[in-house]
Structures are given as structure tokens and as C-alpha cells.
Amino acid sequence: MRIVTRPDFDGIVCAVLLHEAENIDADIYWVEPSEIQNKKAIIQQGDIIANLPFDANCSLWFDHHVSNKPDLAVKGAFGIAPSAAGVIFHYYRKQGKFKDRFDELIQQTDMIDSADLNRDQVQFPERYPYLLLSMTIQNRGDGDQAYWNKLVDMLGKLPIEQVLEDSDVRERCDAVIQENAQFGHFLTTHTTIVKKISVTDFRSLDVVPSGNRFLTYSLFPDTIASAKIRYLGPDKDQVLLSIGRSIFNQGCQVNIGNLLARFGGGGHAGAGGCSLEAATAQEKIDRILDVMTANEPEEVK
Hints:
40% of the residues lie in helices and 17% in strands. By secondary structure, it is of the alpha/beta class.
């Protein structure tokens, strides 16, 4: 059996739980949602997919993204929930597994993945151990996989205080704190406001800055949603668009996951992403932003 998940905090915790609940005998297969959607990921029988779109070749599937809601019953579990890890946790808890373990980890994962944060958490994530740790999980190259695997192992065995004492984790946490301090400048320099939507375009930068993805909602408090645009890689043939509702200003009515599913992406009602061919990306981004600025709720069919 092999775990197939994505490299974010929710995906890491999904892998922690599945290692505990199942007889996993292969390395974790780390993929991005677009690799499942574009059939670039090789999914085989015995695979357990978590926090990713469904693939018919897998043996178990767990997810919580509204855009991935299955039309038919599948083996595993799906629920519109704060995190995919929470879906897995409750699925196996009903089978008598985990007992009193992982309650705090799931509570923190739910909070982080659903962006249920207050202003102090957004402005000072270094004060909150799980939140800071989640920000160290970045996909910058194959070398990161060893770190993701290490976190899966440690979070399955150690309390958060001991995880943060690890030298590799501490180094990455320090780097995140420094990046966050600089990120505000990049946001204010490269962001325009379009009818209460903050649009941050990093395509002019050779090196895309990393930082606190929630900071934009503090910097631009009158906006109801944010859009971030960047190239997916150095070849600049794919553009990544990420959109999220403001976590402080609750005026956005657009189901973002369903909107982006129309363009090959997906996500939650409140946040999502899609990758676009660079040659036609701007035309599609303009269409997406037209829907966002119109801010009309989705018709129920």
C-alpha cells in the first residue's frame, strides 16, 4: 500500500494518520492536484489518495474539497470538512483506531487548512507552533521530499515542542520568520485592488517571494478576496493562479473551488487554485476576475 498525497500541512497530517491506521509498505508519493487532473501522476491499485482529486485506479480515497465531490460512492470517505486529515481521523476513529491520539494535531490542522485564524495568528505566526511549522512546508524542488517525510515520521511520534527542536525544522522556521518579515513589501509593491479583490502578480519577478499567505488580508482589510498570480516554473510555460476569500472580511459569495474547476483547477468554496497555459492565461484570468468582482452566489441546480 502506498500513500499518495500533496505537500502541504494537511497532506503531511493525512500521511501521519494513514501510516498509523494502515499497513503502509511503500514510500509516500507526493504529487500536486494538477498532476492527478492531468493524468501525469501514476496511480495504481493499492494506492491511498488523500487530499487530492479522485483517480479510479486507487484503492482508497479521502478528500474534503468541494470541487472534488464524487458523483458516485467511492471506497474511503469524502466530506465538506475543514481538513482532509479530519475526514481520515473520523473515518478510522469509528473503527476504533487512534484512541486518544492526534486530537490536538487534528484540531490544529482543521484550523490551519480552513484558515480559521485571528489577526494575531496572521501577523505573528511565530507565536503559534503548528502554524509556524505549516509554513515551512514548501514545494521548491525534489530536495524537499526528505523534509516532508521527516515531518510525517516526527509528527507521528513526538509532541510539537520536540518537533520544533529538530535542527532542520528550526532552520526552516527561522527562514520562514525572515521571509514573512520581507513578504509584506513584495505584496504592497505587486498588488492592485480591483473592485475589492486584491490581485498580486509576481510574474515580473525571476524569484517568486515566499511568505505568509494570509498576510494580504491584514494589509488590504477592505478587500473580500485575494488572487495571486505567478509562473509555475522557470520555463514560464504555466501560470499558477491562487484565489482565496478574505478570512476577516466575509463579503465574498463566489464558490471559488467550483469556479476554478471550470478552468481545470478546483478547491474549497473559500479557496482554490488552477494552473493555466501561459499563452492563454491572461484571458482566462480576466474571465475569472470578472466572476470574482461580480460577486454573485452560485446558482443552486
